[in-house]
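We store sequence with structure; for instance:
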Amino acid sequence: MELNTLRYFLAVAKEENMTSAAGSLHISQPALSYQIARLEEETGKSLFIRTNRRMTLTEEGMFLKSRAEEIISLCDETLKDMQNESEDIYGDIYIGAAESRSLTLLAEVIQEIRNSYPHIVFHFYSGNYDDVYARMNHGSIDFAVMVEPFGFQNIEKIYFPLKDRVGIYIHHDHPLAKKTSVTSEDLNDLPLLLTVRSYMTPEDYSEEFHIPLERLNIAATGNLIYNMSLLAEQKTGAVLSLEGLVHTGENSPLVFLPYEPVIERRLVFAWKQYRPLSRACEVFLEAFRRKAESFKPESHN
């Protein structure tokens, strides 16, 4: 499977038409058709559903498109790093990040890097835990910021020095909103809105928050807390999440109540074990390591 063939495949997937794709690639339509046919023969899969006017991806084609984009991106970044012979450090750094107010620390490091190396560009990707890890494992992102606990292996990591409290976001009209914190008894039968992780089962939530499984009431799940907060505003339930991720100030219909006894989550800054890093990534990693080791909590109060 050659890189040029993957580029041809991505062009057809984008244009959904062999003639249009051939024009964008500046090659003949028969030559492009031959390359796609060879790719389907090599993979042993039909990659496109062909009609008179359109070519749409099959399920196997969508899978290959995702992988091909990652492969092409990684190859392009590698070539760019290899061709960099100047004293200045430049390049692109790709970060997959979970949601946490502790990311303020990461933002400070990025600003320091940008002040010293203005040609380094940062790209953020937000997704669920499985997606972020998969992208790091495949090489389409360089670093991942994830909230513990997680079940991933084969990574190197640095712990963020800050921790985030776990609690619920609930509508201010709800009777619980008059409290200053919530306990396991408060969560019994309460409709919960969860930002899901594939490795956390209902049994895991039941055990951690001491809710009898038969009284664990999961009303909705999602991978973005913003969407869950909209449901909470409509009084669908309470979002179980980290403090500081949803606006609860003036004019907000939601309040945050920390869980008692205190449960805290810690962020980790992770990268794939044994993966060579670009010069830009090495500089960034070392800067974050120094920031984490010299962190003073009073400066972030």
